Amino acid sequence: MRKIFEFLKKNISYLIVTYILIQLIYVLFFPVKFQSDSFYYFRLAEQCISAHSFYPAPQHLYEDYISAPLFINLLIIILSIYNSTISIGLLNILLNSLQLFLVYKITVKVLDKDTALLTVILYIFYLSTLGLVLLNLTEFLFNVLILSSIYIYFKKTNLSYLFAGVLAAASIAVRPLGWALLIAYILSGLYQIIKLKTDLKNNIILVSGFIIFILIFGLFTKSYFGKFIYTSTNGPANILIGANNNATGAFNSKVFGPGDPGLIKDAENKTYIEKGEYWEHQAINWIEEHPVKWIALIPLKLGYIFLWDDYSVSQLMHMQDWNLYAMLKYIKTHKSFKGLLGNNTLIIKILFFAFLIIHHLYYFALFLFIILGIVAKINGKELKSGLLLIFLVALLTLSITLLVFGSPRFKYPIIILLFPFAGFKLNSLIKG
Q1: Which of 102, 187, 344, 375 counts the most CB atoms within 10 A of its CB?
Q2: Is 66 exposed, middle or buried (CB count within 10 Å of its CB: 0-12, 13-18, 19+)?
């Protein structure tokens, strides 16, 4: 095993080039049809292009919510240059490459170069990232902004603190989870003030950068939409999904159906603001009436987040409608394996099942390395400075996620942030 990793480290450049070529082959020759959120984001961008507007366009005032405004506006720019799903795929490859570079550079900073090379190898063989290249989701842009902010923050200059704040705010314009990074920065700054007797200057500069971006982006959307929008507004709907009598800890849209608390009468004539206020009221009322039941859903949410990891991997075999959860649900519902995986041949079914098993074995090993790496650093009292910040961002990200519902996709930013810990543990095992 040691010889294999030594060989891969020595030939890391060839491995990275091969990785990029595989992505290009998939994007150019084996694209998938956008579904679910991927299609929704694509549709929003297309609507704005047709309306000659940035997002949100005036017609989106009566949508259920505003989604990832910075991400959608980037799609509008990309698709205006060349209107094809290939453009999105190429953007994904670029963002994935940037993400890999940032994971490497941050690992070098908080650990060492040898560990960083092993982290790159672990990253490349993590197939969820490869599968994401075929989709049209916010993960890549969000993670690149988070990682860029952290990397620049580590430079510890006035200008770097300013841009770290700007990038943290930009991440919130993609996903509200970016608040976890700002909170982590503030807590880290307070720790330095109390323990190291530093002054408030660094925190003030960082928060200033944050406010500058929010004001500029919010005023930009207000100039053509009439509303000060700087982030997604789907929080109330997501919280309600995880806070109702039928909540299971996973996504379940039944709460918005007839007879359920999420149903809004005359919804087509309600603005996203009115809908959000109603869903927020319904969710808060339920939580206040059922606090124990709401808290009891947390283990289920954690299970849905971490117990499987094939939300994007299925795309690599063009089995968009199937994943481990869908397969188990089918067997439970039909009490039979007949019809499982549709009309595909037996060979394809066997290959797909084997593919999922191998990937999950890798995922669980990676997850175990992360946990063991964190524990080792905590026990050795080495969880400080950069590593502590990374751990804190991941922990806060998970905490915010648990306010809504669980989904395998929600773990991705957390896993990417914690890759240095996996690299550290693997390096420890190799060295014996």
Answers
A1: 102
A2: buried
pLDDT at residue 338 tops 80: no
Output the six-digit token pair for 389.
């910040």
For residue 172, which of 164, 182, 163, 162 has the smallest C-alpha distance? Answer: 182
Q: Could you give the percent of the chain with pLDDT greater than 70?
A: 100
Distance between CA 167 and CA 169 in Å, rounded? Answer: 5
d(CA 360, CA 126): 10
Mean local confidence (pLDDT), 363-368: 98
pTM of the model: 0.95
Token pair of 430 as six digits: 């190799």
Cα–Cα distance, 249 to 253 (Å, whole number): 12
Q: Report the candidate in 33, 61, 56, 32 with the shortest Cα–Cα distance to residue 44.
A: 56
**95: Cβ–Cβ under 8 A, 6 or more apart, which residues?**
140, 141, 144
d(CA 36, CA 285): 29
**pLDDT, averaged across the chain:** 94
Helix (H, G, I), strand (E, B) or coil at 250: strand
What is the rounded CA–CA span in Å between residue 337 and residue 79? 42
Q: Can you spell out the DSSP letters for 304-367? A: HHHS---TTGGGGGT-TT--HHHHHHHHHHHSSSTTTTTT--HHHHHHHHHHHHHHHHHHHHHH
Of the candidates 196, 431, 235, 412, the residue with the CA atom closest to the CA atom of residue 311:
412
Token couple for 245? 């009598």
DSSP conformational letter for 11: T
Q: Which residue has the higher pLDDT, 113 or 333?
A: 113
